[in-house]
Specification:
mainly alpha; 0% strand; globular
Length: 220
């Protein structure tokens, strides 16, 4: 399968001028990696919660993410956080796609997700929305399909974490099934492992049936 966007590297081949441009593209991606990480660290949930006089790290599940904000402040606030976190991954991956095609998009997208999940000096999020933003740049149809699955599971079972985990696990399988390069499936698989690991607490609560419902108020 030939992806819709080729990289500068794949188009140039072995021409000397193109090798120079390849080096420029790789250097640009390397320089943009810390920028993408910083974009990922933007504290969307903390700022939205603070604007309502709440501390998202001390209330609800304590996770600075859209689901916890939605439980505490309503779906509009949660949607705003989800859009902001989604944009972080999409902007980083989009910049990488412009600079160095699909490899650049993967690298900068992952950097943004890592920044979201492991910022300095505070607790990070679970990475689902940021990863979704990065992946929609490269796999829009897969993201659209899994978004429907996420919505149905979250709506029926009222467990956002379970919906996120299932969508995360299915993503690298879908990438492989659609015939993308093996390195892409491996990269998405690594990203999926990161997201699943960040959901370790949710997995324990799901197994013990103590996970908070998506529409429930903490402590209810």
């Amino acid at each position: 399968m030939v992806p819709p966007f080729g990289s500068l590297r794949s188009r140039c081949g072995r021409m000397p001028a193109c090798r120079l441009r390849q080096n420029d593209a790789m250097l640009a991606v390397a320089l943009l990696l810390p920028v993408a990480w910083l974009v990922g660290t933007f504290p969307s949930a903390l700022l939205v919660a603070r604007a309502h006089g709440r501390d998202i790290l001390q209330e609800g599940s304590g996770n600075p993410g859209a689901s916890n904000v939605a439980r505490l402040l309503g779906w509009r606030a949660g949607a705003l956080v989800a859009v902001c976190d989604f944009a972080k991954g999409a902007v980083a991956a989009g910049a990488g796609l412009l600079v160095d095609g699909r490899p650049g998009a993967c690298l900068l997208g992952v950097a943004a997700v890592v920044g979201h999940t492991f910022p300095l000096y505070r607790k990070g999020g679970k990475g689902v929305a940021a990863a979704g933003g990065a992946l929609v740049v490269l796999y829009p149809l897969i993201v659209a399909g899994l978004a429907v699955i996420w919505f149905v599971i979250a709506r029926v079972l009222h467990k956002a974490s379970l919906a996120s985990l299932l969508a995360t696990i299915l993503f690298p399988i879908a990438v492989f099934a659609f015939g993308y390069d093996t390195w892409e499936a491996a990269a998405v698989g690594g990203l999926a492992v990161l997201v699943v690991v960040r959901h370790a607490g949710n997995i324990r609560r799901l197994l013990h049936r103590t996970e908070i419902d998506l529409g429930a108020q903490p402590g209810a």
